[in-house]
Fold Canopy FGF signaling regulator 4.
Amino acid sequence: MNIYILVLLGVWSFVVANEEERLPNKCEVCKFLTVELQEALEKTGRSKEVLEVGEVLDTGKRRRKIKYNTSETRLTEAVDNICERILQYSVHAERPGSLRYAKGASQTMTTLKNLVHKGVKVDLGMPYELWDEPSVEVSDMKKQCETMLEEYEEVVEDWYFHHQDQRLENFLCENHVLKTSEQECLKEMWKGDVGKKGEAEEATREEEEAVQKEEQKAHDAGEL
């Protein structure tokens, strides 16, 4: 039988409240922009492809050959739609700071989906089909990413052609985008679920136990 749960308390109320009040800051936007761009470039960094550039003239002058992994073409292809990749992120509200943004389903959403698969009716105020749509936070981060990339396009190009011995995060975020007082999120490293995870897991366990009790009551009543 289906059991109806209105998820407006406990873990989910915490998640919703934070999603309404918390939008990505400049540090977080720069951090994940550089993460995605660095990753995109690393995928093509070992290519041995050689490009021919320039026009073939009547004089018979040959086109100039350049390595793909140091070409402007490689950078252009990496930058193209890079901010779209931000939409693959989810909000993990049980984690602190910039660690709340990561790819994959959050602990809370995974638990809620498991309840649905067990036959529990969970009401989040939206159709189940929309649960995996990008959140307000993530959509806002994408927009900020696009604005930042446009504003610092020349800085990214300078790094690509002259400063790849430095991490892009350091060169772009620390040296150009952020003030010293705005760089705190760059120090946050993933070390496993921390912060609110214990509270979230405890709340979801209690939720599941409540469901099991209701199922047992319904079963006992049916036998009577």
About this structure: Residues 26-185 form one domain. The first strand starts at residue 3 and ends at 6.
